[in-house]
Design brief:
InterPro entries: Amidohydro_3 (IPR013108), DNase_TatD-rel_CS (IPR018228), Metal-dep_hydrolase_composite (IPR011059), Metal_Hydrolase (IPR032466), Metallo-hydrolase_Enzymes (IPR052349). Its EC number is 3.5.4.1. GO terms for molecular function: cytosine deaminase activity. Keywords: Hydrolase. It comes from Falsiroseomonas selenitidurans. By secondary structure, the chain is α/β, with parallel strands linked by helices. It has two domains: 2-70 and 387-424, Urease, subunit C, domain 1 (Roll); 73-379, Alpha-Beta Barrel (TIM Barrel), CATH 3.20.20. Helices cover 34% and strands 19% of the residues. The protein has 15 helices and 16 strands. It has helices at 2-7, 95-109, 112-129, 144-159, 174-177, 180-190, 213-227, 245-256, 275-288, 296-302, 319-324, 348-359, 374-379, 405-408, 436-439; strands at residues 11-20, 36-44, 47-53, 61-62, 67-70, 72-77, 131-139, 164-170, 195-198, 231-235, 262-266, 291-294, 329-331, 397-400, 417-420, 423-424. The strands form four sheets. A five-stranded parallel β-sheet has the order 9-10-11-12-13. A four-stranded mixed β-sheet has the order 3-2-1-4, with no helix packed on it. A four-stranded antiparallel β-sheet has the order 5-14-15-16. Helix 8 links the parallel strand 10 and strand 11. It is globular. The relative contact order is 0.17.
């Protein structure tokens, strides 16, 4: 199939294909048991020119029943931290150990050249796997954070047309309460970014809300409102029942009539709250129109980790209950090869595969495939350009030989074909050895 794609001209059909109904727009056709639709897709001059019932095309590239997905959208990553594990490990593998390790590495090694090299490596991984848009959180501790934002403004320009790159700040909530708050918000606004924070104080973990939490949260919202910024928040990332910031964020957004988009990530502690409190929180999140992004691989890695003891829970939030309430839920990569998650490659096919297993996004699959493309595109405000298969869209597609969901989710899909503007992408993930000198690794 790749040979045929490489030889294809500007006008061809992908025939005898399957696509998730949740990722198709403008084709009314019955779906099979896994929520997949049989269809033919015409690509012309780099765009999708037609979607037709299977059997319409008389010739073209025969997908043999394989799946076609839109380019992936990864709405929560940490490109500035990526790939530092060989240089700075997390000896305990838990959340506190991750914070300490990253702080140590940031202070010792994060020059602009270091950040740029690791981030570009990560973007090349994502690009080769078929991702078309990424939002990255950037550690924004002043004065160091100013250099990080400079790096990513350059990367955003360098990667334009390959990956649409969005940036969000991240630092503890109390950092915005002091004199640095306005400068932090101005840096984000001047860079066209998203205002983000974590709902804990400096040096702390996600547990009982501090006494000044509500005043600090209102001040944070006011910084965003004054600059017309959207919000992206790390929320309740622990197994502590006192971590109840999600409810307060929703109440604050409703009380203030906040007009921007809000995305909240993690929200782990919600799954161990009393049932009535969880239901109330979910209803408020739905009413406030807050988007939720879950990071199942990273949270399963970090949460409930105690040396010599088997974890008792998966560390993830109530995604099925949220979807039932009408909340938009996405899945994303989060950290890659750093002290918060020792693994990962910014491969959204892997993220969806593991999310399905961890969160039971199957039987039926329903519209869960949208969590890796359309829903994050909507949350990021780029659904007009990315996240679905529709006539007129740029033909940025990911093609799998797998026909059914059990085939798609049983293997790494390393033989996938990635199309960019209808042409076969020749990129492959970069060799780990490229980073050896930067990270001090002896090959």
């Amino acid at each position: 199939m790749k040979d045929e794609l490489a030889a294809a001209g500007p006008d061809y059909w992908l025939r005898n294909a399957r696509s998730p109904a949740a990722l198709l727009q403008g084709l009314a056709a019955p779906a099979e048991a896994d929520g997949l639709v049989r269809l033919d897709i015409r690509v012309q001059d780099g765009r999708i020119a037609a979607l037709a019932p299977q059997g319409t095309a008389e010739d073209g590239i025969d997908m043999r029943g394989g799946q076609v997905w839109p380019g992936f959208v990864d709405a929560h990553t940490h490109l500035d931290k990526g790939h530092i594990w060989p240089r700075m490990r997390n000896p305990t593998g838990d959340f506190a150990g991750a914070i300490a390790a990253v702080m140590g590495d940031r202070g010792a090694a994060w020059s602009e050249a270091d950040i740029a090299a690791r981030a570009d490596f990560a973007l090349r991984c994502a690009h080769a796997h078929g991702t078309v848009a990424i939002r990255t959180h950037l550690d924004t501790y002043l004065p160091h954070g100013l250099a990080t934002w400079r790096v990513f403004r350059r990367l955003r320009e360098e990667w334009a047309g390959r990956i649409a790159l969005q940036m969000s700040s991240i630092c503890p909530l109390d950092r915005f309460a002091g004199p640095d708050g306005a400068m932090l918000a101005d840096t984000v606004a001047e860079s066209g970014g998203v205002l983000g924070m974590v709902t804990r104080h400096s040096g702390g973990i996600h547990d009982a809300l501090p006494e000044a939490f509500q005043a600090e949260l209102d001040h944070f919202f006011s910084l965003a409102e004054a600059r017309g910024l959207d919000l992206d928040l790390h929320v309740d990332e622990s197994g502590e029942t006192g971590a109840r910031a999600l409810r307060e964020i929703a109440l604050t957004a409703l009380r203030r009539g906040f007009r921007g988009k809000i995305q909240c990530g993690h929200c782990c502690s919600l799954s161990i709250q009393p049932e009535d409190f969880a239901k109330e929180t979910i209803a408020l999140v739905a009413e406030a129109g807050i988007d939720i992004v879950v990071l199942p691989m990273c949270n399963m890695y970090l949460q409930d980790r105690v040396a010599g003891r088997t974890p008792r829970w998966r560390g993830v939030t109530l995604v099925h209950e949220m979807r039932a309430a009408g909340i938009r839920v996405s899945v994303a990569s989060d950290n890659t090869r750093d002290p918060f998650y020792a693994y990962g490659d910014l491969d959204m096919a892997e993220v969806f595969r593991e999310a399905t297993r961890i969160l039971h996004l199957d039987h039926p699959f329903g519209d869960w495939p949208a969590a890796a493309a359309l829903r994050p595109a909507e949350a990021m405000g780029i659904a007009g350009a990315h996240g679905s298969i529709r006539v007129g869209a740029v033909a940025d597609l990911v093609l799998f030989s797998a026909r059914f969901m059990t085939e798609l989710l049983s293997r790494p899909q390393s033989d996938r074909a990635v199309l960019r503007a209808g042409r076969l992408l020749g990129a492959t993930p970069p060799d780990w050895r490229e980073l050896d000198a930067l990270l001090g690794v002896a090959g």
